[in-house]
Specification:
heterodimer; A: 167 residues; mainly alpha; 10 helices; B: 245 residues; alpha+beta; 6-stranded antiparallel beta barrel
Amino acid sequence: MADDSFERFYTATYARLLRQLALVTGDRGDAEELLQEAFGRAALRWRRLADYEAPEAWVRRVAMRLATDRARRARRRTAALLRLRPSPQPAADLSVESLDLASSMRKLSVGQRQVIVLHHLVGLTVDEVAGQLGIPAGTVKTRLARGRAALARHLEVKDGEVVGNDG
Amino acid sequence: MTDDLQQRLDRLATELTAASTVPPPAAVRRLGRRRRYRQVALLAVVAVALAGLAAGPGDGLLGRGDEPAGVAGPAATAPAPTLQPPRAARGQVAVVIQDPPPGFPERISGRISARNCGGLDTGANIYRQLVIAELPYRGQRMVFNVLTWPATKEPPLQPRNFRAPWVVASRQPPDGNGGEDRPFLVAERPQTRLHLDRADGTRGSIVGAYRVVRGVSRGSTTTIETVRNLTGAQLAMTWNCTSAP
């Protein structure tokens, strides 16, 4: 790719990846921060990444890992603090239906949110999700099943309706 | 209903990111560069922290003339280095690691990427050498960092042979994530030897027994944990910066 290929790649993929990250973090600001960090790393390695078949997958993988790390750090270091303060609320300009879903997503672990977003929003298969996150396919299936079951409970949707095939 | 879930996720994503704008790519590039500088600085901090630990109580980093006999710490039991340094072509660095721990290569070479590659003889037997090399290895970046603060000339004083230098080898995943918690190989004084092929430090080699440590960053402090003590396995690195890196 030419010298401005990173700019083109960045412009073409930023919004799409931001949507995915926002669902995982539940917060647009957090998602923007993680995504910019991931793109910053991609910019440093762009000469090599440009030859990849799917550099977007690389950026997504880095951003997802950053999201996992951030969630882990938050859990370890500020667990007590988080217990004392009210849990962050989704943005006020969400529709009622989206508010329900956002609240339900927040109750899932970050790992469950990641597999649900990658499988149901991005449309990756279980194996592709496993490859993307660097975890076994069995773990992806487990997280999907538990995540969807939890969503079904929270959204008061019949379990059989939400839990579909694993792709 | 899976389709319904997809639609609802899609809608939520749209609403969550409705007011977002795409930051300029230049800002993202700057972010990446700043991160790279932070990583190099962290490596230097870890190396200095290691040097400080080995110096022991009462020993400053500078102003230490001759090497004290029987230095405390794991290096005191290290054998004198016998490993032959590898050859490095112009603009290249070459490294050999005996009995490498998982994730480290037995032998690696490549183009030197250091901004600093050279040495400075400050007199009073004190010599400083700094070489930083980053080599790709199995999808990761191997970072080799020669840092001597200070190195003392070997008795009888040889102009280009020194002891008490440091070499630190570390590996980082492609995204550079969590580099500070990954293992480092450290070859340290007093048995480690530095030889300069050129007096200005642009060509030289370092050999020494290594141990495996981990620099753990907690807030603003960095602590060093030994993962594997000295086993007699040695690390040798040769650099040749006589052409532009």
